[in-house]
Amino acid sequence: MRPVRDVAVVAFGQTDHLRSTDEISEVEMLMPVLHEVLAATGLKTSDIGFTCSGSSDYLAGRAFSFTMALDGVGAWPPISESHVEMDGAWALYEAWTKLQTGEADTALVYSYGKTSPGSVRDVLTRQLDPYYVAPLWPDSVALAALQAQALIDAGAADEPALAGIAHRSRTDATANPHARLRGSVAQGEYVVRPLRTGDCPPVGDGAAP
User: Fold this and answer.
1) Where a domain ends, among 114, 148, 170?
2) In terms of domains, do 109 and 33 share one?
3) Of 138, 140, 141, 121, which is closest to residue 194 (Cα–Cα)?
4) Residue at 64 is within a domain
5) How many domains does the chain have?
6) Distances (CA, A) of 120 to 25, 113, 205
């Protein structure tokens, strides 16, 4: 059995997460902070063994929109690259897996999104099964509430514990100058039981390599 390789995150960058960035594209949002991270490591694009991005074409409203962001990385000469239709955590996992196999010794991972152009609660659920689920028009908050309720019903969590996660994240954001919202917020009324207003993430645009 292959031993687990030690993997280190040697640089991280983040744009200001804003309510709306109508004046710039995803590429323009991503490029400055991406180059900032590369400069911090002293590496060039040609030094990166594997590049993986996480984003949602549904938010952009066009298929293969991530290929435009790849222009900001520099994909010529050809590079080893992958994309996950999800978030940065999933992209990081794919890169970690690639490093564990020995197919690469260095990796660049980045994620980005512009949720402000449309109603993110409706847009995200267009990714659901088109025959049985999508026609019901659930929104993303309702689906999150169903997931939370499943955890509660299984005895794996309760509502105060789940609310505590949201509270901790908002409190941690106090030390992050790039955060969209900083400091704790009141729980508020139920949006969809068991989720309350304070449990839901804010709508915003941003990138993080």
Assistant:
1) 114
2) yes
3) 141
4) yes
5) 2
6) 17, 11, 11
Identify the DSSP state of 22: T
Q: With contact defined as beta carbons under 8 Å apart, do 118 and 125 qualify?
A: no
Q: Which domain holds residue 195?
A: 120-201
Q: pLDDT by residue (tens digit) across 154-195?
A: 999 999 998 888 888 888 888 888 888 887 777 778 888 888
Taking each helix axis from N to C terminus, what angle separates 66-73 and 26-41, rounded to the nearest 10 degrees? 40
pLDDT in tens, 20-72: 888 888 888 888 898 899 999 998 888 899 999 998 888 877 777 787 777 77
What are 116's two structure tokens?
């402000």
User: How far apart are alpha carbons 181 and 78 in whole angstroms?
Assistant: 39
Spell out the residues 6+ positions from residue 98 whose beta carbon is closer than 8 angstroms to its own: 49, 50, 52, 104, 107
Same domain, 36 and 70: yes
For residue 102, is it within any domain?
Answer: yes
Instruction: Using the structure block, give the residue that is written with the tokens 């992050």.
Output: 176
User: How far apart, in whole angstroms, are the C-alpha atoms of residue 37 and residue 72?
Assistant: 13
Domain's final residue, options 114, 132, 165: 114
Instruction: Measure the CA–CA gap between 116 and 19, rounded to whole angstroms.
Output: 7
Beta bridge partners of 54: 84, 111
